[in-house]
Design brief:
This protein is of the alpha+beta class. It has 4 helices and 6 strands; from the N terminus they run H-E-E-E-E-H-E-E-H-H. Helix 1 packs antiparallel against helix 3, helix 1 packs parallel to helix 4 and helix 3 packs antiparallel against helix 4.
Length: 184
């Protein structure tokens, strides 16, 4: 019973780490990546649609993205959605494709991005710790139901080891993303 609680918690922690990884991927680090546009939603015939479902997004160079819509009539809506987004990039269109040039990051912007990365990482760590706390509470409740004390103690220790493993993984992701952002 305790093992099942721990297995469920580990699965939830993996999902939390994936969410943090996706958040990091959507942060602009001066390098072009299609993940930058993951949060852009276009009003396509009145329906909010993710940009990556309306167009092919390619990276021809390190600092540029090319968006090629499958339906050319969606071009103005895609441009409008990019302008409304918090990317801070102005799209240029030639009637068939939209080009986005990723500007060089200033030192202050890099410092701001590092703060954002650390904030998102801390949110991930807090979520992982909350999962640990809930599971440890459930394990303690099992002890009152008759689960042996040594099994409860072992369950708590295992939960702590798993928690440490996932927090370490987030810390490594932070270090890697920080280096990527600060690289000129």
């Amino acid at each position: 019973m305790v093992k099942q609680l721990i297995a469920n918690a580990e699965e939830n922690m993996k999902k939390t780490v994936e969410v943090v990884r996706k958040e990091f991927a959507s942060l602009r680090a001066g390098r072009a990546t299609p993940a930058l546009l993951d949060k852009v939603v276009v009003s396509y015939y009145g329906t909010p649609t993710p940009l990556n479902q309306l167009a092919n997004i390619s990276v021809p160079e390190a600092r540029s993205l090319v968006i090629q819509p499958w339906d050319k009539s969606a071009l103005p809506e895609i441009e409008r959605a990019i302008l409304k987004s918090d990317l801070g990039i102005t799209p240029t269109s030639d009637g068939t494709v939209i080009r986005l040039t990723i500007p060089q990051l200033t030192q202050e912007r890099r410092a701001e991005l590092v703060k954002v990365v650390k904030k998102k990482a801390e949110e991930g760590r807090v979520a992982i710790r909350n999962i640990r706390r809930e599971v440890i509470d459930q394990i303690k409740a099992k002890q009152k139901e008759g689960v042996p004390e040594d099994e409860v103690k072992r369950g708590q220790e295992d939960m702590q080891k798993i928690t440490d493993k996932f927090i370490k993984e987030i810390d490594e992701m932070v270090k890697s993303k920080e280096q990527e952002i600060m690289q000129v």
